[in-house]
Every structure is written in C-alpha cells, then in structure tokens.
Amino acid sequence: MGEILVVVPARLGSTRLKNKPLKEIKGKPLIRWVTESLLKTDFRVLVATDSNAVKRAVEDLTEVVLTPSELPSGSDRVAYALRKLKRIPPYVINYQGDEPFAYRNDLLKLYKSLKGGCPVVTLAKPLEEKFLKDPNTVKVVTDLRGFALYFSRSLLPYPRGGFHFKPLKHIGVYAYKTEILFEFTKLEPTPLELTEGLEQLRLLENGIPIKVEPTENYYHGVDTEEDLREVEKKLSNF
Length: 238
Fold this sequence. Notes:
- The protein is an alpha/beta fold.
- It has two domains: 1-103, Spore Coat Polysaccharide Biosynthesis Protein SpsA, Chain A; 104-216, Spore Coat Polysaccharide Biosynthesis Protein SpsA, Chain A.
- It is 29% helix and 23% strand.
- The chain has helices at 30-39, 52-58, 74-83, 104-115, 178-186, 191-196, 201-205, 225-235; strands at residues 4-10, 24-25, 28-29, 45-49, 63-66, 91-94, 120-126, 139-142, 148-152, 168-177, 210-214.
- Strands 1, 4, 5, 6, 7, 8, 9, 10 and 11 form a nine-stranded mixed beta sheet that branches. A two-stranded antiparallel sheet has the order 2-3.
- Helix 2 links the parallel strand 4 (45-49) and strand 5 (63-66).
- It is globular.
- The chain starts with a strand and ends with a helix.
C-alpha cells in the first residue's frame, strides 16, 4: 500500500495537557504508544512534530519530519510533512497524536472509500447516552448515503420526537486525497468552524463532502490526566 501514508501530527505545546506527546503511560511516552499501535496495522507511518524530544521518542520506530511550531493545526502539520517527501502519496490519513488505539480494519475502510472516489473520509461510532450533551464529545449526523451533514459539540440532532437512529460520536481520524488536504489547508477558517471550534466544518462549508465510515472499535484520545488513567487501564488489555 505504497500509495497511502499515515501521518501523526504531534505538537508538544498542548494547551490542555502540558507536553502531552511525552506523557508516560506504563513507562512509555504517549506518542510511542500511538506509533507502535499504528505500525501493527502494516500501514506506513510518519510522525510530524515540532519537537526534537518527540522525534527522539520515536525515530527508532519510523520516519519523522520536523515541522515549524507556529503551524496552526494538525492538518497543516500533515500537509507540511507531505511536501517534504521525495514522493508524495496520493492518499494520506491524519491520525491524531493522542489516540493510542489503532485498527487495521478501520484504516482499510478509510483507504477503500478514498479509492472509491470519496475526497475525505472519517470514522464514527454509536454514542453512549451519557455523552449526548457533553461538549467535549463531537457528534456527527449523516445523510442516507453516509456523508456528513454536520458536526457539533451540542446535542445533535435535537430529539423532539425521540431519536429515529443511533446518535453518532465522531472519531477524529481523517483520510484525504492528498490534493484535497493541500486545498483544505489553503482555505480560510469559516464561520461555523470558528463557532464550534471544529476544523472539519471548513470542508463542509466549502462544499467538500466527508464520508463517514462506521466503527465499533474502542477509541480514547488523551486530553486530561483522567484520560491518561483511563487509557492506561485499557492498554493493559490491548
């Protein structure tokens, strides 16, 4: 699968959890857990980081590209890293640097959808009721073909007559045709994106469709010390 690359953006200066990529879980930095998990899927993996410390944590495992610290987002970091390659692949997966769980079957779903013509693909899973109103849990609604209609931190949709489908939790893994990623990172931030604080809305506001593939797999990004403790428990059995 030389035509697709998984890029992991890892910025050291996280605002919610200081030095997040280097936070240790069971004696190993978070970014190393992420990288090792992805390598087990047999996809090619590259880490894009603004930190030499992060580079040292994973450079014995996989390729690393150093990026400027002032890049505004993970998507910009991925695009920057791709442009540094001698051969730019036609497809890329942007895999969050704080998500230590990775699954080959989900990555293959993303790849298959890209090959089938979708410009952007992401993942979603059934949402537990306790997270319906949690602003830290991003929800997504789709059309009948499985393309995203909207993403929100709010309850989505409002169940005036009860839910007629299972609400979905968005999993922040994105697969792009590389040309679309380059186009995306050149676009100005959009009103809904700025309102919700959700970068993917820039795509929808510019008429770029996002296919949403279903998953039942366990994902748990790390944003807090509580997340670290929860992830440590799960990694013992992963």
